[in-house]
């Protein structure tokens, strides 16, 4: 899917895809089956998600999503939407975390903006070096499967930050009392990805 921002698609999202409403509940088995049957879906930004974040670090208190998810088969490539360079890389292997995570620093409307690419296969980290320049359309990595991406059905978590996060990490979900500040720090990814919903 193309957008009107002159950026490259971050994934090969087909013309037909679902938009998940995870405010009504989360069923990982159902999502995994949907993906195994070739389905693609998008998960929303600034969505309060019910019963999804039960790992110890969330306690289901941090449950408002600060990125956009693209649910797709493991191994699907993820692309840089804009030119940028590799700022940080890490493998967050604990339950409920990002697995392979890469932060690229892009320039958007004349200012630096930092993009987190989460839930990648950890092998993606071996293909890049800190400081490496990527052009729009270059492969950032590939989606990891449940055994390597924090035990989630395969998907990309794409999140923006106006501040340098200092590491290959951003809070992908925040609590209600953190939301106002989070909306300022982590802008809607549609500004780069285009309008999908």
SSE map:
Elements lengths: L17 E3 L7 H9 L4 E3 L3 E2 L15 E2 L2 E4 L5 E3 L4 E9 L6 E10 L2 E10 L12 E2 L4 E4 L12 E7 L11 E2 L4 H7 L4 H4 L4
Compact summary:
By secondary structure, the protein is mainly β. It has 3 helices and 13 strands; from the N terminus they run βαββββββββββββαα.
Account of the 3D structure:
The chain is mostly beta strands and 197 residues long. The protein has one domain (18-193): Glucose Permease (Domain IIA) (Distorted Sandwich). The chain is 10% helix and 31% strand. It has 3 helices and 13 strands; from the N terminus they run E-H-E-E-E-E-E-E-E-E-E-E-E-E-H-H. It has helices at 28-36, 179-185, 190-193, and strands at 18-20, 41-43, 47-48, 64-65, 68-71, 77-79, 84-92, 99-108, 111-120, 133-134, 139-142, 155-161, 173-174. The longest helix has 9 residues, at 28-36.
Let me know the number of strands: 13
How is the quaternary structure best described? single chain
The radius of gyration computed from the alpha-carbon positions, rounded to a whole number of angstroms, is 15 Å
Low-pLDDT regions: none
Q: Kindly give the count of domains.
A: 1
Strand order in the largest sheet: 1-2-5-12-9-8-7-10
The H/E string reads EHEEEEEEEEEEEEHH
**Rough shape?**
globular
Main beta sheet: 8 strands, mixed
**Class by SSE composition:** mainly beta
Question: What's the tally of helices?
Answer: 3
How big a fraction of the residues is strand?
Answer: 25-35%
Instruction: Examine the secondary-structure arrangement and name the CATH architecture.
Output: Distorted Sandwich
- CATH top-level class: Mainly Beta
The CATH topology name reads Glucose Permease (Domain IIA)
Mean model confidence by pLDDT = 93
- Full CATH superfamily name: Glucose Permease (Domain IIA)
